Description:
The structure is a homodimer. Chain A is α/β, with parallel strands linked by helices. Chain A has helices at 12-15, 31-43, 63-75, 148-162, 191-196, 212-216, 245-257, 262-267, 277-286; strands at 9-11, 24-29, 47-52, 79-82, 97-101, 117-118, 121-122, 176-178, 183-188, 202-207, 223-228, 235-242. Chain A has nine helices and twelve strands. The radius of gyration of chain A is 21 Å and the shape is globular.
Amino acid sequence: PFKVPENKLLNLESFFSMKAIPQKLLVAGEGPVAAEVSQLLALIGKDVTLLKTAEKIFPALDDYMGNFISRKLESMKIKIIEGTAGYDTLNIDDYEGIVNCMPRKGIKPTGTLKPDSADSFYITDEHFMTSVRGVYAVGDVNGRSIYAHAASAQALAAVNHILGITESMETERVPLTVYTEPELAQIGKTEKQLAAEGIEYKVNEFPLSANGKALTEGQSEGILRILSEPKYGEVLGVQIIAHNATDLISEASAYMAVESTVWDVARTMHAHPTISEVFMEAGSDAAGTPVHKG
Amino acid sequence: PFKVPENKLLNLESFFSMKAIPQKLLVAGEGPVAAEVSQLLALIGKDVTLLKTAEKIFPALDDYMGNFISRKLESMKIKIIEGTAGYDTLNIDDYEGIVNCMPRKGIKPTGTLKPDSADSFYITDEHFMTSVRGVYAVGDVNGRSIYAHAASAQALAAVNHILGITESMETERVPLTVYTEPELAQIGKTEKQLAAEGIEYKVNEFPLSANGKALTEGQSEGILRILSEPKYGEVLGVQIIAHNATDLISEASAYMAVESTVWDVARTMHAHPTISEVFMEAGSDAAGTPVHKG
């Protein structure tokens, strides 16, 4: 959307092989990589400005998570500026280097087959088959997820479909992971998605600052949030901010893969002392019987 | 079982307030604490001998886990000697300090109520009620588990029973955690228990040395093992050796609390790169469709 002098442009690939990194940097992009790279550069003492190319730093995150990471980056003296409203105020001359963290488009193969596409992505059905019968498209090219694990799961589902296997694979409940400090992880629907779909939900939270293991490890920044359906208690989404959120989210994946309820979460015995106890705490709270919450 | 001069005896409580710790130490005991304390002392340069007061260092662990931790401690120059066969070879004069890591018995309240007991523990029914109607015993005193989280779960189950609530609590599937380096964690039945009960089972494993995140973190020592029922695939037990095994085990608790099968484990999408992917790998292997295992 704006011209950058070649000699100032830093692609992530070249970035890690550079002998020296300029001091004043503009990180342009969105998504996990934009947040991770901005924070990494700030941590090694660079003067970082993050130019958001989407309204939110990571549009797929719940607003709660998005607001947290924005505040976190700002607390580290990272300036966040809007790219979405136009680039009028942007002066490229102010920066010694521009880091490209723009979302990548799927790279489509060349050839005579031309499956239907929209917005530069192949259109696929629930088995990831394109408009060309027998031709499947998984991963970046179908525009459904930027994550490697989503691509792997889609590939398994596509292969199953080819082999006539009807066993279901998880391809919708994709855990989102951001390797910032603290890490962010999310699975299921966001508050905004639930509201837009008219699904009733409640939110139950438990902070890491009340978790013994997190305090012992000096890693008490963060929270676990469970979004659940109020009547039958099905877990609709889980959001985690924690030093090791990307590993903690797998427990949420396990609950959601078998459509567990908040009662299942509450009655699962969690070892003490572990950070995973926050699941039991928030689950008990959601079940109406909080244990260590007033 | 043997006499120790008072001035040489170190209780764990006094241990942490000592100004200096003697160099040549005998750790006498069993269970997680004996393993943790022996390793800690070796890590700070002490000459440690572990006197096992049970045949296994931690009798509740699967032999696979027990053998691992024995070898691990021995690789750190900790001498392991048997206490069970008699203390004939033991010369207390060889040691400057004796660290008491013997298992604790439950401390029973004094009073006029005398519930039935056996082996110094109160006998309790499935609701943790003693032989005295309306009197419940949870935690160390009933001899079922040494863990705080088991006591908490038993307490909730007892209170539910008092209140007439029939909702089930997990009180049998107790996660066992050992805070050594690497950590050990286990839930469900051991191979020996399954064999003794005549339950058919299979074991599927995946090593951390083939997990990208573990390699990235330089913490690739360890393995995940899933014990499952061959026909319907129910997960019967999970054993983990890993730097953060005590947090990883909660995913296993989640699967087992709702009686998930290895197919559920296999089809749950796990974020990449995370250590939790070892669940997907071992689960896929158990389901007969390994992804990254030959």
